[in-house]
Amino acid sequence: MADLRTTITEVVTGLGMLGFDDVETALLAAPDALLNVERSDYESLLRAWKERRHLDVFTAALMNGGAFLTARDGLRGRKPVVIEWKGAHRAPGDEVVPADLRIDHVYLVSCKYLSRIVVNASPHHLFDRLLAGGHGRRGPAWFGEVAPAEHETLYAAVRAALPTELDLPAAVDALDIQQRHDLGRRLREGWPSETLGHYEAMVTRVADASAQRWRAAIGTDAESMLWRLLRIGSAPYFVLGAAPTGFLRLRIATPWDWRRHFELRAFDVEPRAGGQPVVAWRAVVRERDTRTERNVDGHVEVRWSHGRFAGRPEAKVYLDTPHADVPGYFQLR
Fold it and tell me: Are residue 104 and residue 137 in the same domain, yes or no?
């Protein structure tokens, strides 16, 4: 089962699309039209509702589903025959659309509540492969590849600062899985003070090298890169959720739609100082009708996936511009 909050946002949104206007009634009904939801899922949700956990999320999800049911861009008042919930499993193919629900085999819906993360990929998949194609196998450890000297120096300093009974190997690449997990737990509260300078040097080098590789890979393909960052693909879909400013109810354009309305004027990436390697990105987009230009800003955080030295680094792509202000994200009508 997916984590509770995620399950609430997705399953209860589907229940709202079926016309339910009361959370408890919907959970007790467990309608057959909502597929892939187990009895245990409903029981967990009902228990959370009665214990008054995440009441705001339950309410917002039901309201979002109801809004999609009545929207002109959505179901226009026609209750679905079938809603398929993707659940916690990972998409088996090259899936650009981050769909959580599929309605009547046609409408694709992503549920996003207070999250600015649009993509979570390996650094190789983002900076080298530009998010094209399937996820594939993860490449070599990114920090050791783009900042080998700084990475090794940091590890040596950490090894020297920790008790010798940990019995860590001399080279970072010699760490086995258990040693990596143990080291990650040991460093959970922070770096030893004498290693901070080495960490900062590695952060700077990784950010610089990542930005350089990304620029080189993008070349003249910036428009496609922007579409992939914004999860704009060949199939239209909808985003239902919440943002700090209120409800999030959007129709996401396809590349064909996007080019009809917008023109990419510039796309830039640059390393940024921070507590971890960061690469900022900015797109300058012109509206074809008004000729006005708008900026779309975001950043990528490159960090270990399961604690310091514990797992391969991941690249989390954040959208810093509010969703409602992004070209190609149209308000649901």
Answer: no
- Judge whether 292 lies within some domain: yes
Query: Global pTM?
Result: 0.91
Beta bridge partners of 296: 283
> Of 134, 133, 129, 103, whose CA–CA distance to 10 is shortest?
103
**Domain of 296?**
121-233+253-320
Residues 129 and 258 in one domain: yes
> Is the domain of 106 the same as that of 136?
no
**Predicted confidence (pLDDT) per residue in 26-35, tens digit:** 999 999 999 9
Same domain assignment for residues 228 and 285: yes
User: Can you give the pLDDT at residue 98?
Assistant: 86
Q: What is residue 315's three-state secondary structure?
A: strand
* Chain centre to alpha carbon of residue 300: 11
What residues have CB less than 8 Å from 190, skipping those under 6 apart?
Answer: none
Residues of the chain falling short of pLDDT 70: 1-2, 89-96, 134-140
